[in-house]
């Protein structure tokens, strides 16, 4: 299981890469592996401000459909345009080209509530 050290994680298997007051959100390698082949991603929350743990979209795989949750409160600024034509990029590169949304982080204090790579590795290994 790949768990990059430069990211923060949620108990729901999302990751957050912080860049100043912005963040990129995606699903973890563990999550994409559990889901199987990703076939469709629906995110209709661009321009909306959502609270931590609110649903920002869904990810559909051959096996199931799962909600995706905000790791911190923020405004959805952008959806990864590559996902519309190639949702399978989430399976191939979940931490790079497979990012889901770019957000403006509204409450930086919430970052302290996210899991470190070490804590996430323990959670996902259970």
Distinctive features:
6-stranded antiparallel beta sheet, OB fold (Dihydrolipoamide Acetyltransferase, E2P), 9 strands, about 130 residues, alpha+beta, about 20% helix
What is the string of helix and strand elements? EEEHEEEEEHHEH
> Could you estimate the helical fraction of the residues in percent?
10-25%
Q: CATH topology, what is it called?
A: OB fold (Dihydrolipoamide Acetyltransferase, E2P)
What average pLDDT do the residues reach?
96
Low-confidence stretches: none
User: Major sheet: size, sense and barrel closure?
Assistant: 6 strands, antiparallel
Distance between the termini: 13 Å
Please count the helical segments: 4
> Based on DSSP secondary structure assignment, what is the total number of beta strands?
9
Structural class based on helices, strands and sheet pairing: alpha+beta
Strands side by side in the biggest sheet: 1-2-3-9-8-5
Proportion of strand residues? 25-35%
Q: So, the CATH homologous superfamily? A: RNA polymerase II/Efflux pump adaptor protein, barrel-sandwich hybrid domain
Shape: globular
Per CATH, the architecture is Beta Barrel
Radius of gyration from CA coordinates: 13 Å
